[in-house]
Design goal:
globular; 20 strands; 6-stranded mixed sheet; FAD/NAD(P)-binding domain; about 30% helix; 10 helices; alpha+beta; about 375 residues; D-Amino Acid Oxidase, Chain A, domain 2
């Protein structure tokens, strides 16, 4: 009898949790290690999930919980800095007509739902643990962990994010690069009139926007040119975001009234990454932000990561042999979809940095989102 296959998943974010759930459903033994003791259960303010992300969450069996926890909508508004609505555009349903076009939710709630599903799957989870060394041969990977234990696996899936140490450990030298923009984010109560994402272009920031995340909450953000993070004291974060946000009208005065605690404000640079050539070395393969990331201008980061998990699991469970050809085919299948999203996301920001006034923003967004309606 052939022994059951074993997989190590490194990283417990969206991609790592998703691939763990799907592999366990297929009867594959999975160990998941996550460096953070709290499993990132409280990190982040909000997240915008397009239909193609919701499609994968439905495959994971968590769509009902996500739907009940978030706020679904089907359009985006463009406003002047004073809050005047200039245009309302219906969103394309990239997950199919039976799912909302977009759903906003609190990021910790999404992580909590995925954590519950991983626990229920029967995967063995260890928190506060990293993969310290990986030694491969033709049949598997020997891994030593920071807690002093060791294990042998048929495959290692690196889902340890943008700063992936696993990516570097297997000799992939690609690193994330800043795009020149940065974003301030905060969670706040939802004014009753906020029923979709609204975006204001111009004013003191490149973009000022918000997204409803439940019946009672939203997350708001302002985008500016990136600055030296070391020169911005964390205790000034609320003041820095207020300085940019208080000039905007419409619902913004209600939102800015709640930007008071610097510990609740998040500041992040926009980065881009696309690992070229392959996303694996031997029996170690990358998924999610470890392989690619893009600015949130199209709100596709989590969606692409979830798709990676879904596609990789389909290919692994449908193959008799896990070899180089299979993992290269995974890369080839994904890169043709991921590259245009990364490039479009970066281009949308670059047009703003360059002050291009006649850029075909609707056309680029429309072409990209139409492509994403197709199954990954």
């Amino acid at each position: 009898m052939t022994p059951p296959r074993t997989v190590l998943v490194v990283g417990g974010g969206a991609a790592g949790n998703a691939v763990t759930i799907l592999l366990r459903r297929a009867g594959i033994a999975v160990d998941l290690v996550e460096a953070k003791d709290d499993w990132n259960a409280t990190a982040g303010s909000g997240i915008t999930l397009q239909g193609n992300a919701l499609r994968v969450l439905r495959e994971l069996g968590v769509w009902e919980q996500v739907q009940a926890s978030g706020f679904a909508f089907g359009s985006v508004g463009i406003t002047a800095p004073d809050g005047t609505v200039l245009h309302v555009q219906r969103d394309l349903r990239t997950g199919g007509d039976d799912l909302p076009a977009t759903l906003g939710m609190q990021r910790p709630r999404l992580q909590g739902i995925l954590i519950e599903a991983v626990r229920a799957s029967g995967a063995r989870v260890r928190l506060g643990t990293r993969a310290e060394s990986l030694v491969q041969d033709g049949d598997g990977v020997d891994v030593r962990f920071t807690d002093g234990t060791a294990g042998r696996y048929d495959l290692v899936i690196a889902a340890d994010g943008l700063g992936s140490t696993t990516r570097a450990a297997i000799g992939i030298t690609a690193k994330p690069e800043p795009t020149g923009m940065a974003i301030w984010r905060v969670a706040a109560p939802r004014p009753a009139g906020v029923v979709r994402t609204d975006l204001a272009y111009g004013g003191p920031a490149y973009i000022a926007g918000y997204c409803p995340t439940s019946d009672t909450t939203l997350y708001a953000y302002v985008v500016e040119a990136n600055r030296d993070r070391a020169a911005i004291p964390p205790e000034s974060y609320a003041d820095e975001m207020l300085r940019l946000a208080r000039s905007y009208g419409g619902f913004w005065p209600e939102i800015t009234a709640h930007i008071t605690d610097p510990a609740e404000v998040n500041y992040t640079w926009f980065d881009r990454l696309l690992v070229e050539g392959s996303w694996h070395r031997g029996r170690v393969v990358l998924v999610g932000d470890a392989a690619h990331c893009c600015p949130p201008t199209l709100a596709q980061g989590a969606a692409l990561s979830l798709e990676d998990a879904w596609v990789l699991t389909q290919m692994l469970t449908g193959a008799g042999t896990w070899d180089d050809a299979l993992l290269q085919a995974y890369y080839e299948r994904r890169v043709g979809r991921v590259r245009p999203v990364v490039e479009a996301s970066v281009q949308l920001g670059q047009w703003q940095l360059d002050g291009v006034r006649d850029a075909d923003v609707p056309g680029l967004m429309g072409r990209t989102m139409t492509m994403l309606r197709e199954l990954p």
